[in-house]
Design a protein that fits this description.
The structure is a homotetramer. Chain A is an alpha/beta fold. Chain A has two domains: 130 residues, Rossmann fold; 243 residues, Dihydrodipicolinate Reductase, domain 2. Chain A is 32% helix and 26% strand. In chain A, the strands form three sheets. Chain A has a nine-stranded mixed sheet with strand order 16-15-14-13-7-12-11-8-17. In chain A, helix 8 packs across helix 10. Chains B and C meet through strand 15 and strand 16 of B and strand 15 and strand 16 of C. Strand 16 of chain B pairs antiparallel with strand 16 of chain C, so a sheet runs across the interface.
């Protein structure tokens, strides 16, 4: 018997448009899904490139305006893979049209934006999710299982960092298609919304809510040529952002993100220290979960490098055989699969409401970066 | 303008059937191909499972006999993803029918088998390739480029190992669908053909031909229940195999493979030591290439961990952004792409003729394991 | 010709008394010294244990009161290896008596204390030094050389942590001989003075002065039995302390220390990110310095693991042969050697004045931990 | 009450003379010894340098001939730290004079030599030991304890390597004081006796006797200037040596040593794979023991990095505090302590008889390197 279809309308064809399209393309080949995803249409202003993208990924048609996508009856889900500044408008319109909505992170440029987006999907009662993909790297999911099983005991510390080095060159322009992440009007913020948002999403998933934060933000390169205006203009984003946090469970948090850490490309790491055990993970060695278990025999204790590639590990039974790696893109495949299989039961997280909590923290970080005070984050 | 199609007939739907199907499915989405691969048909005796497989991967039809596949006019390429004992017959029949042939490794169970397969494809003049996929892990390909550029100077040492631990349990049966690798009649040999063949293929690609070898082979578990006969029967494969080698360039080789190295899943490693530089790689950390460059300033020398994820690194410009990993499966995607783009120009390696050289070495290893003598390997 | 002697009077026989005694014992065997250190006398209240210690290390005599040591004419140098609460009084008395003074870190329990200590040694014009030993781990010294040579360019980030896990058990007592580090009256503070002080000393040596800080401190276990009073008493020290900093050179700092990071024994790490290169080091792998050099050929860039064991590396020509490790204790040997060889020329650092700067930072950290504000640190 | 003295006569003042002298100097400061070692005298032909050495380490007197040392009544122990070619004569003379004998490894240049040395000490009934120091790196000793406790079960594999790169330069001379290891007359062999001997000693200690071997040896640089003759002469040593082995317990061994592995200084590694657990160690990270324990919960299994620095770990309770490293030299300190504390009870190993077994293996390796056959090794 044929499965019910999930007809997808994609907005955007950039880096994230590719990861999402690949996710929906691969998911049914490796996972048993409740519905069959169909890449129905894509919307983008540059229709020439959109046509090429559609042809590559098998989208049935192309729209030059996302509003046309929302108007179509043959679309069930709007997936927003466009820059941050259009998330708000598109998501609300889609929800109001009764479409399910998936949105690339961060949900809003501000918590005010995402608050309205949450209200819209909840009012419409439509399924919704935000692409915080790192939850579904199998080693990260495994960490969640171990924590939920009570392996760690009382938590003392959580620390995370996301280090990159791609904007050190002073002549790198801001704005334009490839570099909109440097344009504060489009991106909303710099590394706080782009990188720390990932760290915060994972942190609150693993360790619960964050109460208060104090932050330090910096823009190392104060002016850059703007691709659109053609002029050298002040840089509005934060190049680096660090904050200290107090979690609701009494543990302490330390977070840092930067695009000025020479030698690191996408070094997202976290570590959580509990009374009985600690866990650590690193995106540059993504198949490994490090665990120190204090309940091991005294002289035999040590950090274990758990190679999360066995059939019993999260998601891995659906891929190859033990020892063989999957990569970054598969985390999106897992998310697509979980979203689809949560449609008729327990909704997969993070929902818009979950992601709004992250925006509350990033807002507090940006505010504290200016006030120098501890700020409420929830 | 529509591209010429490359219509594929797949034989087998097991682990390798999946990796090959995924390769042809993903290749056109990430690489600019000269022809468009089409998953036309699959042949397998178990048609129920074959139907399921065909549906999952989009094959247009199913045949219960690979001969029917070869007879079809709408098939350009026969891809053999079936167990080793049928490689010989299928490949020769396919070549004689004028089909291109791709074959999972090892090419033959013996060099005698592969010798006839080489003769068949060469007589027919059909394109051919063997799926030694590890050449196309980007870090391995990068190693090849550095060696070819003369970075290492005179070579002194090459060492490789492929360590697994999945057959330690004595009650694991031999034979049958999942475990044919333990049945010597089907597999031809144990770890020598399954694992060392990979090490040898890479070694000869990077460091040239092997002249002589002396080997040590062992079967730790002497009897196992047989899935097909239902009886406990002697185990005919080698559980472990190690050999020392002399390469044509005067360097020394040391190779080892086993399925009894507790703690290792698929630890394929190699290291090559040259006068001026050394390189090392490890499948469990596949995105990294380690390099020691003696020409670095004396007090600043050290093994570099090259994170092979930049756009300038082999194949990586077609995937995501720097720092984000691809996995095992992508090596097959690269091979599919290279095969297709080599059809109208320089044929991509390893061809059947190349893979036959590997079979000559594995034959010599197995022979030496019995004679205790140094044996010629070419 | 016999060398001039440097007659040492040691105060304390604990962990630090051993490292200092070993340093003066080993230094002349491995380094060419301007003067010959002589372990002349040791002072401690527990004379029985002091006698045993003196016998073990070859001290000529024992005093029950450090004042007696200072009164002796046959002592040139007072080395303070006693708990923090007596540093101030002993150092000032020693200086006033015209003795050279070496003092275990931190110099004072507060910057107010150390300010007076600096004044005393400067007024007396006596040689002085504080045992921030980690500067003289060869890999750390090598980092200093590379930074001073301009290898890194403009600095963006400095981060350091010192993670331990030895006080997690709630029944661990505070105070008494072995555990005075948990008694705030004796120690002055918890991890801030004990661990962060090391991180700060290295940081300012490598990256210059710190202008301002904002901190988060926590005492996880609020009450502990007191070894001296025999009662359960409030814990006055900080169990964990983290702070963000702005350096004078415009770079950002992130520092953390704790004794509640399960799985880490003495994980002191630092990393510094510059425009052209980055460096990282780790006490648990102390012979290695990691360096990323952006000036390396693009596709060959990677973090280098410099094995700091060659004869050309700092201090290493005096030990064994390349590849063979020294350990923690040798950093004290180097410091003893440098102190002695700086007596007649350029004084070796860190002097009391240098260490006072560290106390200013730790004071600011502790203050900010209470106020929640950014505080001046110099 | 004063302890009985152990009066030491040292032969040689080179690299090993330093490590042995340091061992006897440090041992009583860190270990509770049954006797008090006294550095009584040193013998060496170059008396000027010997005087300097004696002064540095506190030897009471100097002899220009080792025979004079043996003749002295105030010497209890002759410690041979001289080149390999004099081990045989000195050891036998010392034993015949009733002296205890310690000897740097390898015991003889050949098993024939060491056989006579064993006979001499056994006939004389004198305590004896060979300085295979790596047994007493705490992580290695810990491995021995875990194996003896039955942690690993049936053993399948043992592999070891000792990789260096210091003789790659073709203009490096052979012979003379610093480079006698390249002179076959003095050294007996190249890397087989110098490096593989270490690997073999540890291997047989951990995994029992070796029955048979087949080897491959090579001299990459065939001629070198000779420091003594002043002429370019053929090189008689093996630059590289690898062998495969069958242990008495049925496990397979793989060994390799070379001085032509660019990038490695003293990379001695071993790994042992058992049915239930595996262990691995590496001299370049000497404080760690890696263990994979298959009895761990399935999804939580992983290689543990045991940081062998706790008070409960072998020898470590006598040094500093958890997390702080000792180095290479301390392994000699441990051996000196164990030798002394075994004098009146169970003799510490390896004795001359134990070390002779290693010489039997190295002889078989060198022989097989020529014959190309499997050779008996015991």
């Amino acid at each position: 018997m044929a499965k019910e279809k999930l007809r997808i309308g994609m907005v955007g064809y950039g880096f994230m448009g590719r990861t999402h399209s690949n996710a929906f393309s691969q998911a049914p080949k490796f996972f048993d899904l409740d519905r069959e995803p169909v890449l129905t249409a894509i919307a983008a202003r540059n229709t020439e490139r959109a046509e090429e993208f559609a042809s590559n990924w098998g989208y049935g048609s192309v729209e030059s305006d996302w509003r046309a996508l929302i108007d179509r009856d043959d679309i069930d889900l709007i997936d927003i893979a466009a820059p941050n500044n259009v998330h708000h408008e598109i998501a609300i319109a889609a929800a109001e049209a009764g479409k399910m909505v998936m949105c690339e992170k961060p949900l809003g440029r501000t918590a005010a934006e995402s608050s309205e987006m949450v209200a819209a999907v909840e009012k419409a009662g439509v399924s919704n999710m935000v692409w915080y993909n790192y939850r579904r790297i199998p080693a990260v999911t495994h960490a969640k299982h171990l924590i939920d099983a009570g392996k760690l005991g009382r938590i003392f510390h959580y620390r995370a960092q996301f280090l990159q080095d791609w904007t050190i060159a002073e002549d790198l322009p801001q704005g334009g298609e490839a570099l909109w992440r440097l344009d504060v009007d489009v991106a909303g913020s710099g590394v706080t919304g782009d990188l720390l948002a990932h760290c915060i999403d994972t942190a609150m998933w693993l360790n619960g809510g964050i109460d208060t934060v104090t932050a330090m933000t910096e823009t190392f390169v104060k002016e850059r040529p703007h691709n659109i205006t053609g002029k050298v203009e002040p840089v509005g984003i934060d190049d680096a952002s660090a904050f200290m946090a107090r979690f609701g469970n009494g543990s302490l948090g330390l977070f840092e993100a930067t695009r000025y850490a020479r030698g690191h490309k996408a070094l997202y790491t976290f570590e959580i220290n509990g009374e009985n055990a600690s866990l650590a993970w690193d995106l540059h060695d993504l198949t490994r979960l490090s665990m120190f278990d204090h309940s091991d025999e005294g002289t035999e204790r040590g950090w274990r490098s758990i190679h999360v590639t066995d059939g019993e590990h999260p998601y891995m039974g659906n891929w190859w055989v033990p020892g063989l790696h999957i990569g970054y893109a598969e985390s999106f495949v897992h998310q697509a699969a979980d979203f689809i299989n949560g449609l008729d039961g327990t909704a997969a997280a993070p929902t818009f409401a979950d992601a709004h909590q992250t925006d509350l923290v990033t807002d507090a970080v940006l505010k504290s970066g200016k006030t120098g005070q501890w700020e409420n984050a929830s």
